[in-house]
Amino acid sequence: MSEVIGFLLLGIGSGALISGVGMGVVLSYRGAGVINLAVGAFAMLSGYFFWAIRSGEFASIGTVPAVVLTLLFSALLGVAFELLVVRPQRSATPLAKLIAALGVLLALQAAVILAFGQSAQPQPTILPAGNVIIAGVPVAWYNFIIAGILLVIAVVFMALYRWTRFGLGTRAAAENQAHAMFMGLSPNRLSLANTVLMTVMMGIVGLLSASITEVDSQTLPLLIVPGLAAAMFGRFTSFSVTFVAGVLMGMAESLLLYFSTESWFPTNQGGPIPGYDELLIFIVLVVAMFLRAGKIPARGDVLERRLPAAPVPRAPVRSALIYGAIAAAALYFLPGGFRGALITSLISAILLLSLVITTGFLGQVSVVQLALGGVAGFAVSHFATNFGIGFPWAPIMGVLLAAVFGLLCGIPALRVRGVSLAVVTLAAAVAIENFGFGNTTWGGGVTGSYVPPPSLFGFNFGPNASLHGLDGIEPSPLFGWFVLIVLVLLGLFVCNLRRSGLGQDMLAVRANERAAAAAGINVQYTKLLGFTLSAAVAGVGGALLAYNYGSITADSYDTITALALIAFAYISGITTVPGAIWGGLIFIGSITAYALQDWFGIQGEWFTLIGGLLLILTLVQRPEGVATAMFYGPRPSLRALRLTRRGGGPPGGSQIADRVGEAKVAS
Amino acid sequence: MTTPVLEVADLSAGYTGAEVIRHISLTVGGGEVVTLFGPNGAGKTTTLRVISGVVRASRGRVLYAGRDLARTSPTARARAGIAHVPEGRGIFFGLTVAEHFRLGYRGARIDPRVVYEYFPALEPLKDRRAGLLSGGEQQMLAVGRALARRPQLLLLDELSLGLAPLLVERLLPVVRNYAEDSGCAVLLVEQHVQLATEIADRCYVLSHGDIVLHETGARLAGNPGLLIASYVGQQSAGPGQQGDGAGSGG
Fold it and tell me: Is A33 left (phi over 0), alpha (psi -120 to 50) or beta?
């Protein structure tokens, strides 16, 4: 029993880091109205900066000047983030702001990998070493120091927001920017100050984390998931609740670590089951959401911008035949590497189609789609290897399973929407990836899970089928054609969905749930059906991805790729089928990426970096997405929206434009 | 004649490329209360928003004490003495009454006692969140806070919206007295015709983005037919009519 107390205390330090990230989320939300997924990435960047100027990578200077320089760097980072991302996004919807922060996260991660490589670097600690023995367990002093520093920060922020003029001004500007301006407050300056406070605090977190973890491109950025859970307990407003929730989560994780050594703890292949702490965070988040999310204060901005219009497809069958024929020919004539990349592109397009349904039509951001694809993929693998069930029954059952999971994911969407839903699905994706796919029994474990090639009546049409392309190299164009046919069918299905009554209902739910309910639309039914359909589409994509790889691990469906998928969906246009297809053609691993690498030697990480930056630019310049703008021309509705943004206007302005746009495209 | 506090010349503005107001010209002098009437969608609120700077003018000028405001941000306009009480109160529901008076930019000082003098009903409520106040109390807070800033130009948008007529009868005279005492120019958008014509020195009527009538408050109060005709559109902006009223004000 005394060991339990010891392990609880051991978790204080890492819990305080979660608190720090959570408070960064709160600060970003209160100050700038952004659910900032990049908070942990800022801590990571500051950590790398400190390491680089301390360890001899760039320089090797003393601890104190290095700390000062790092905090200065963090402040500059805040200024840059505010001016390049937050301010141009001032009038965007919370969802668009979240996606922009996602772009920052992806870009920072890729930049760090490009600059310093994948491997973790031992960051020099700034805190004294040494232990104190509590209840028989040696607990390092730094745990208490880190928690103490972050507690002080939490108290300072609380006081700042409650009693100072700056805090009052921030609260006022968060509630209504126009009214704040009428009183002579400057929302821009308040937002800048808050952003810089946030990045400096994340700089401190980055410095303190040295005692607990090395610097790498994953640990701190992904601390955002428990950080968001803590912030959600604090309703994105309370520093004290967020701090306590973060510390408690750290302690619970530490306790689980202790329990995992006990004999009764569930095991997998001799070790404790993987991913249990991610599962814990997910459960905590769901609890937080049900208890607290309904009361997250909304922000009033000068101008609300909606999701881009979802135009009705023009002549989809003709386009499908023309582009399908081109793709079919390309699959045969292209050299092997390009053929493989094109197949990956087509599969990515299918995964993006599922986002067109959830986000483009239904207006809900779901990060879990790729993980749902993974559910189908692993189902295909395990049905085949464990039960001898092959094509087509294994993928069909896999897709059904993905649809059931999608339905389950849709249930929280009945209660929370928009930004909170994105947060919950992010945690769900992380939990499924680690707890589900990391497990050898129903996932892939470390070694991977074999996927036999698809074949019907003994006729193999997988990537290794006997028919080869023009250059006689695998992958087989047969598999490419199979993927192409599936994509064309699903593309036409989504086009048809947009035209159907259900599609109209979805757009109505997207525009205004209450108004949709008042108009007699069954919002719950529409949402659940939308999530299920979208999960089924994602399941098809995931199963094809499994066939394409031949052997899958948790990394095949990892969360960073899932986030990148949303980023690329936005860049090319998340509301239309051409948007999804173009998104597939430029996604990571796509034919464009392959060509850039083959011809110019541009590495994959550059692609993520450029993708992240492009995403921010797209959101600022072309919210409807590049492909959608290209295919559906500069319609009056889009032009009107652009004018609104430049000229500024009352809250009514864009809604009118949006409604005009929807009416226009619906006619 | 001295420079008017507010002079709007040939002003056009709108949203999403469509103009809501076209070629509007009006003036408000110091100590004067001017009312802007007009049916829904006429452009009254837009006019106020252009003056306070949250909507940009596509043409024309806004002069404040003779100074062109084209390059002045909404924040700077507020600091220069323009107080805009927007439709729907313009206060912050999450802040308490007392916090509203502490709210401000560096150098701004608001004396709560001034507000409590205008509206004694607010004093016992000072620790209550503004969102929990009644509609009338909220409007008192909004107007009281605006007055306590000692503005030179006060823009009031639909004070009477959602309020009992009794309350409006108490609010408008406070504004009138403040204008007379301090020399502040007041531009009032109002639907409550009778009260507004009584306290206004002059009135403009906006219809579909054009000024169709310009009269003294007294004349309009005595001749309601004039206003009705301009509302329903029978009365075009006849040069004689407009000339009649134009010179008679401030």
Answer: left
Most B CBs within 10 Å: which of A183, A189, A191, as the mutation test of the B interface? A183
- Among the partner residues A172, A175, A640, nearest to B16 by beta-carbon distance: A640
The closest CB to that of A184, out of B17, B85, B105, belongs to B105
What is the Cα–Cα distance from A13 to A11, expressed in whole angstroms? 6
Same domain, A361 and A246: no
Mutate to test the interface with A, among B50, B97, B103, B147 (most CBs of A within 10 A): B103
CA A366 vs CA A36, A89, A536, A557, B157: distances in Å: 16, 21, 14, 15, 41
CATH of B1-81+172-250, one of 3.40.50.970, 3.40.50.2300, 3.40.50.300, 3.40.50.1390: 3.40.50.300
* Of the candidates A559, A531, A331, the residue with the CA atom closest to the CA atom of residue A428: A559
Instruction: Tally the C-alpha atoms within 13 A of residue A253's C-alpha that lie toward its C-beta.
Output: 25
Give me the residue from B78, B95, B103 closest to A181, CB to CB: B78
Neighbouring C-beta atoms of residue A261, cutoff 10 Å: 10
Distance (Å, whole) CA B136 – CA B142: 10
Contacts of B110 (CB under 8 A, 6+ apart): B101, B102, B104, B145, B148, B149
pTM attached to this predicted model: 0.81
Please give the biggest Cα pair distance in chain B. Answer: 55
Contact B105 A647 (CB under 8 A): no
* Tokens encoding B20: 């809501």
Q: Tell me what ipTM this predicted complex has.
A: 0.84
CA distance A606 to A279: 32
Nearest residue of A to residue B17, measured between CA atoms = A643
Residues A619 and A645 in one domain: no
Q: Exposure of A306 by Cβ count < 10 A (0-12 exposed, 13-18 middle, 19+ buried)?
A: buried
Single-letter amino acid, residue A70: T
Query: What's the rounded mean pLDDT across residues B198-212?
Result: 89
What is the distance between the terminal CA atoms of chain A, rounded to a whole angstrom?
70
Q: Where are the domains of chain B?
A: 1-81+172-250
Beta bridge partners of B83: B154
Q: Which range has highest mean pLDDT (A28-42, A270-284, A303-317)?
A: A28-42
Query: Based on the domain organization, do A464 and A497 belong to the same domain?
Result: yes
State pLDDT tens for residues A534-563: 999 999 999 999 999 988 888 888 888 898
Domain boundary (A232, A265, A298) is at A265
Nearest to A535 by CA among A667, A410, A660, A620: A410
Q: How many Å apart are CA A33 and CA A118, to the nearest integer?
A: 32
Task: Report pLDDT digits (tens) over A391-419.
Answer: 888 999 999 999 999 998 888 777 776 67
**Is A215 within the bounds of a domain?**
yes
- Distance CA(B207)–CA(B237), nearest Å, equals 10
Q: Which residues pair with A493 in a beta bridge?
A: none
Q: Which residues of A touch B53 (CB under 8 A)?
A: 181
Say yes or no for a CB contact (<8 Å) between A184 and B103.
no
| A280 part of a folded domain | no
Are A594 and A659 part of one and the same domain? no
User: Do the Cβ atoms of B104 and A183 come within 8 Å?
Assistant: yes
Nearest CA to A370 out of A527, A554, A245 is that of A554
B92 neighbourhood in chain A, CB within 8 Å: 171-172, 175-176, 179-180
